[in-house]
Queue: 2 jobs
Job 1
Amino acid sequence: GAGVSQSPSNKVTEKGKDVELRCDPISGHTALYWYRQRLGQGLEFLIYFQGNSAPDKSGLPSDRFSAERTGESVSTLTIQRTQQEDSAVYLCASSLGVPGGSAGELFFGEGSRLTVL
Amino acid sequence: GESVGLHLPTLSVQEGDNSIINCAYSNSASDYFIWYKQESGKGPQFIIDIRSNMDKRQGQRVTVLLNKTVKHLSLQIAATQPGDSAVYFCAENIRGFQKLVFGTGTRLLVSP
């Protein structure tokens, strides 16, 4: 597709269940980012991939959160044993370069809205 | 620490007015700043950016001003239209870190 694609767009789960959120970046974009956005708040950085490696995981809130990226393309964000405070929109973005550099503009998907009951 | 904040959580203007959205940042090592627009149910969309070696940059109907002395960033929207209604975020990139730090956001409401 032409843009960043995320799935599912909406996910409702019960507390304690595991969830997987998927991101398909723009073809050819080597950098991929996950952000979390709680209701009425800004974007919290979670993790950054360059290719298949994650040089910056500093934003992952706990060991229940993990992410991987394969084939320098699709990325999956996994949340284990979900808690109510995990409810948020999870946004993925991709870019050709790094912020501030040439072709460093981040293109965002529409997000996956997670509701933990 | 890393933080980007905003002075006004909600800004209401009349169609045709000029809008100014403000943002304060705290990290003097930030060298690149961006404004994003987010409409309801959508991801943020790039509006305009500015590097720290500049103090003003203009786009179509938008101008970004950067005051490094007081660590302040503003977005000016000329002749605001109802389609400009959205939440606006400023974001900063700290030199050496390959990620953007976002502020809380300002909701712009434009009345016809």
Note: The two ends of chain B are 41 Å apart (CA to CA).
Job 2
Amino acid sequence: NAGVMQNPRHLVRRRGQEARLRCSPMKGHSHVYWYRQLPEEGLKFMVYLQKENIIDESGMPKERFSAEFPKEGPSILRIQQVVRGDSAAYFCASSPTSGRGGNEQFFGPGTRLTVL
Amino acid sequence: QKEVEQDPGPLSVPEGAIVSLNCTYSNSAFQYFMWYRQYSRKGPELLMYTYSSGNKEDGRFTAQVDKSSKYISLFIRDSQPSDSATYLCAMNSGGYQKVTFGTGTKLQVIP
């Protein structure tokens, strides 16, 4: 039973380029969350998605960031025109379709984005 | 004031010691409390998951929640060098809501 998959594991971009991060949730999970972790800081919530729906994007920067979770395929976190401050580890988590009320979230290995 | 406060450490203990990790929080809506372990450059791994106040034990790990004090703890008995990692407390109000994390406590268990 594969866990949450993220790719790429490492991504290097120059300022102004686009970054696309992918996340495949665990089998049987239809809830996907994206978090960002800056060096020496905890994880900060960005966005919560279900298939074809954004449920909560209160943690997403207003510009340049977008996320989707299409009917088929992985969830995508897209960062346009990256800046050095976007350098961080981006983690995806997923929750079971039928939760126990509080939704355990299981994390992927993360994508480490470096902006030169 | 942050919603969740956690001492970043680092905390160094000898092998075999009992480790106590703690978090305080301010949002009384939090109902579900979790502890994650994160090794360097890896994703967080869910260790313990508890609902409301009380204790939960799993092997060498015990999680305690005191909602009246807005205080949660993780105890590790007979600590091992392999327990060396960053421990993140996390919580939410339930119902697939976003999780709010502490900043993590870095633990080192010395052989």
Note: The longest strand of chain B covers residues 85-92.
